[in-house]
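re the bet — no i am not wrong, look at it urself. input seq straight from the record:
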Amino acid sequence: MSKEDKFTEEDSELKGRTDGQSEYPPSAFSGLDGQLAETEKNLQTNAEGEINNLLDEWHNRVNHILHRMEDAVHHLQNAVANYRTSLNDHRSRWPSASPEPKPRKKYGTFLLLAIAFLVDSILSIFAFRILGQSLLATIVLAVVLGGCVPMAGHFIGSLFKHKSKTHLEWVASVLFVLLMAGALIIISLAREAAIISYGVAEQNARIGFWMLLILNAVLLVITIIVSHLLAYTYPRLQKLYYALVEAKELYSGINRELRDAVDDLDRETRQKMLIARNLQIYYQTANRKHRTTPYPKYFDKEDTLVIDLPSVIASFYNKDAPDSAYKDYLIKSGDYEFLRLGEELIDEVEQLLK
């Protein structure tokens, strides 16, 4: 690269003064068809070279974004098709079926189960310790019940809330309730027998039986009710709804990356052109001051430094929406039809999510 490649304001003024003293460029130069000072031509050439360098680096960035966007569009397309099919199927059976836009807090369910586990375990340990039972056996039983009862209640409550249950799930939910009731009774009877075998009075053993049964039955009912309130009415539809929302967010995020990349190149191109134009002004100002003949009339114009932009940049440069203009440019090239599909899918998603 020549020295002019890195022109500074001082360099421009020095060249302007030197050329002005030589009465160069001639007064008859029009600024058109190459009738510019050599320094101005160098400014044009250097600006074009720097912009092309920017474009080469930018292409690496954008190609990666476009590759990810193509995958995101296909993912979004599948999510739209799956959700639309499920929504139509649900509404054919339940005309008012819709997903619930407000997401449930996952930690709410975990917190419920954790609290239920602690309450059940602690009360069970307390109940049997006052009857003089073995600490190890009591802890083991309390932990097992504390884990199984809340989980069973959560499963039953959620399943009862689901309107889209299969026949098998209907049968399973009823059987599960009966199994849990039977299991609690059997475990309570077993604990009663164990207490009696330890020499505890039968009346106290009967108290232990009812304490264990009532405690876990109440906890089971509470867990069923709370889980029923927290559960989704149409869980299968809800799952596809969230998958659609996530696919939309993924596409939108990559689309923002593309927009930012185009805006960055647009801004950097403007900066390079502005720098070249400012250096031309410094050159022309110094040239005017140090010549005795009239300066060329094109010195009074602002658009004589014509920088030839690559077609990619020219497609969006000085446009109101550079990213949209760039997409149109790519779509017209014939190799990026997925960009058009992505915009159409986003419009469809907006309608589906209303």
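see?? The first helix runs from residue 9 to 21. told u. also The mean pLDDT is 84. so pay up
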